[in-house]
Amino acid sequence: MRSQDHAALQAAENAAIPYLIVFLYEPSIIALPDTSLRHLQFQYHSVLQLNKIFKPYQNTVHIFQEEVLLVFNFLINSFIVENIFSYQETGVQKTYDRDIAVKQFLTQHHITWKEFQRDGIMRGIENRTGWDKQWFITMSEPVIKNTYTEREKIDIVNPFPLEENFEKSLKNYPKAYQPAGEVFAHKYFNSFLQERGFNYSKFISKPLASRTSCSRLSPYISWGNLSIKQVFQVTNEVLKNTNYKQPFQNFMSRLKWHCHFMQKFEMECRYETTCINRGYELLEHAENKNFISAWKSGHTGVPIIDACMRCVAATGWLNFRMRACVVSFLTHHLFQDWRHGAYHLAQLFLDYEPGIHYPQFQMQAGTTGINTIRVYNPVKQSKDHDPTGLFIKQWLPEIANLPVNFLHEPWTMTDMEASLFNLQLGKDYPLPVIDIEEAIKPHRAAIWAMRNTTLVQQENARILGMHTRRKKIKEDNMNDLFGEMKTDLQNNQ
Ligand SMILES: Cc1cc2nc3c(=O)[nH]c(=O)nc-3n(C[C@H](O)[C@H](O)[C@H](O)COP(=O)(O)OP(=O)(O)OC[C@H]3O[C@@H](n4cnc5c(N)ncnc54)[C@H](O)[C@@H]3O)c2cc1C
After folding, report:
1. What is the Å distance from ligand 1's center to 320 Cα?
2. What is the pLDDT of residues 385-440, one digit of tens each?
3. Cβ < 6 A, ligand 1 pocket
4. How far, in Å, CA of 147 to CA of 3, rounded?
5. Which of 70, 101, 116 represents a domain boundary (last residue)?
6. Is the Cβ–Cβ distance between 93 and 222 less than 8 Å?
7. Which ligand 1 atom lies nearest to the CA of residue 261?
8. Ligand 1 centre from 491 Cα, in Å?
9. How far, in Å, from the CA of 218 to the mean position of ligand 1?
10. Contact (CB, 8 A) for 388 and 367
């Protein structure tokens, strides 16, 4: 959803025949459990921005609200269609199946479908041999400078326009979300490089300060307003002449993590629905609907968790550590199956990217088998990363009057102390749904015990063979510049 570094649009411009740019809202995709209105709104406003860019060339993005095969059927009955140009999509099983149906349809109608590779994600590979080297090569290829020519206007009577109410809801984009589209993507990127990013590493784990010091590029990258290559190359130029090498190098390494995780998902999209280490399917959880709904709505009685859950619902963004923390709390402390939370957060993240979301979710839940199981103590995280309690106060107005020592663990107050702050624990703000210290002990033991089972270990070998690098990168010239990135990648596999 961008006008620059766009291989598909370049191919369409270079073809000697007229072309139509189409964007589809497919009812079957909208109905999926990981889709939410905020994603659709972000897409819609990205299209509106593209239409402003394309207007001088008499071009426009045509929006259809219908299943892809019906739309394509309409198009091939209205025009002689020779080619379809698009990017490859690293999506969930349902969109993968949809693509297979599209391929069959186009083949039957003798239409060529050219799909361009996205962000160095390789299709059809069976292991990671050579992947890193190829990724760096792809990132070093020239960014496409798209040019557009004035076109003869193609009139179509769209039989599948947006339904009035649906379009109304798309337009109604909350101000609390990051503004959508390519123009804002570049604004955010520039302000990050020019100032915000100087404290990138220092504040990366802080729930409040990271909102400014992190790049906040994730929704723009996820929905394609920016390519990874664009971000990589501009940052690389900045790195040559900056006093802030360390933070920008740390940032660069995360661009590679992005693609590293997406590559996992491209090769095994069942990360969405099943434990990637099949051995963990045998770990039994007792579903507790009260726990799950308290977690979702931000009423667990643990302030940092509740603040995070309310914040992400309202704004669509949390920093990495707080995402990891809320997943750890759900799956380790509350001991609920990770699938009870994965779609909920997918819907809330404005930057939802299945290729990162599910592998990260499972990594934090401890179901990969190959990663260290990291149990975050929410009280420690709260004290370490929100020491003044400002983040908690912003999202939990009911306890905003508490002095900071009680803010992180209000249950340690006596009734008398609480009454001094006009607070009735259990009524105005919940008591914790579990005893944090005690509840975790048996859960931690159960999760670790699984690691010694034969199936988990067999699966570990399979996962390591498929998703991790087998050989060190040899090219020395890359070592200097990207040495830091490789160390980071190894730690994050
Ligand atoms: C449970 C869980 C779910 C997540 N789901 C998503 C998701 O759906 N979409 C998403 O973009 N990120 C996801 N992340 C990764 C990470 O939290 C976000 O990418 C990051 O917080 C986005 O903020 P930013 O753009 O300011 O990141 P920055 O720190 O500025 O990083 C720049 C870019 O690097 C990439 N990146 C950063 N951290 C990671 C990481 N740990 N793994 C992979 N790529 C990374 C992102 O594209 C990000 O925009 C998830 C993390 C966890 C723990």
Report:
1. 6
2. 999 999 999 999 999 999 999 999 999 999 999 999 999 999 999 999 999 999 99
3. 214-218, 221-222, 251, 254-255, 257-258, 261, 319-320, 323-324, 327, 349, 351-353, 356-357, 360-361, 364
4. 9
5. 116
6. no
7. 43
8. 16
9. 6
10. no
Does any domain span residue 177?
no
End-to-end alpha carbon distance in the chain: 29
24: domain range? 7-116
Which residue's alpha carbon is nearest to atom 6 within ligand 1? 357
Distances (CA, A) of 253 to 215, 232, 267, 486: 13, 10, 21, 8
Answer yes or no: is pLDDT of 483 > 90: no
pLDDT for 493 beyond 70: no
CATH number at residue 16: 3.40.50.620
The one-letter amino acid at 130: G
Which residue is associated with the tokens 């459990």?
Answer: 33
Residue 251 contacts residue 197 (beta carbons within 8 Å) = yes
**Alpha-carbon gap, residue 187 to 189, rounded angstroms:** 5
> Domain for residue 369, yes or no?
yes
Residue nearest to atom 24 of ligand 1 (CA): 216
pLDDT per residue over 291-312, tens digit each? 999 999 999 999 999 999 999 9
Which amino acid residue places its CA nearest to atom 22 of ligand 1? Answer: 218
Cα–chain-centroid distance for residue 442?
31
How many domains, the chain?
2
Going by C-alpha positions, the residue among 410, 414, 407, 415 that lies closest to residue 431 is 410
Cα(221) to ligand 1 centroid in Å equals: 10
18-67 pLDDT, tens digit per residue, is 999 999 999 999 999 999 999 999 999 999 999 999 999 999 999 999 99
Q: Provide the CATH number for the domain around residue 337.
A: 1.10.579.10
